[in-house]
Amino acid sequence: MRMRKKPNLIPRMERCAAYQVKDPELWRGRWRERMPPGCGLRLELGCGKGRFTCETAAREPGVLLVAVERVPDAMVMAMERAQAMELGNVCFIDADAARLPDYFAPDEVERIYINFCDPWPTNRHAKRRLTHPNFLDLYRRVLRDGGEIHFKTDNRDLFEWSLFQFPRAGYELREVTRDLHAHCVQGIMTDYEEKFHSLGIPIHRCVAVKLHQEEPPRARTDPEAPGAG
Fold it and tell me: Could you tell me the pTM of the whole model?
């Protein structure tokens, strides 16, 4: 469902602009400088209105959470939520998941959240799924060994298909469940998740852990060393 255009989008974005990183490529390899030493770094792909993002950041203040969102009308709501909660460990970027290696260095990320992504159900659109092997390979390029992908969806077909893709791409599956909230609510919900759960739709979830493999060398042109962001 397409999100309705938000009134006064630009001034609203400006009021919470401190939470948006407009030059993420300049922070490649340096994201932890935004937090005290020893902090973890996690990504969320497609944060929507930011409920999961902000509640996770509030619960884990020692982690920097970078949320990726391409829809400004959703991002502004997420940033306003972060601002209202006075969070200091979350930021937002308008970025394409296909370009993650341009924004994050090898081994820089410890966890990626993929919550209720578009299932792209037709075969001709399969490459757009965020659990397609092409994307899983991209995630390997920024995740550390032992890093995790936490994947949740209400779409059974997408989930079953994804369970085959993770091992083929060099991940070990753990915590696989086809009804996450069967007995009680588990973890932090997204807005979509709460809606689906209230309708009795089971939530599917798994954790995919990156296994060590010798990665082939890749040619890329790194930008000049950035200054302070």
Answer: 0.89
Is 228 within a domain?
no
Q: Who contacts 201 (Cβ-Cβ below 8 Å, separation ≥6)?
A: 154
**Tokens describing residue 225:** 């060393």
Q: Is 118 a catalytic residue?
A: yes
221 assigned to some structural domain? no
CA nearest neighbour of 153 among 176, 171, 123: 176
Residue 21 lies in a domain: yes
Task: Give the domain extent around 189.
Answer: 9-210
Domain count, the chain: 1
Residue 215 resides in a domain: no
Q: Which amino acid is at 64?
A: L
- Model confidence pLDDT, tens digit, residues 6-52: 678 889 999 999 999 999 999 999 999 999 888 999 999 999 899 99
Encode pLDDT of 183-216 as tens digits: 989 999 998 899 999 999 999 999 999 998 876 6
Which of the residues 23, 118, 145, 157 is marked catalytic?
A: 118
Neighbours of 46 (CB within 10 A): 19
Which CATH number belongs to the domain containing residue 97 in this structure? Answer: 3.40.50.150
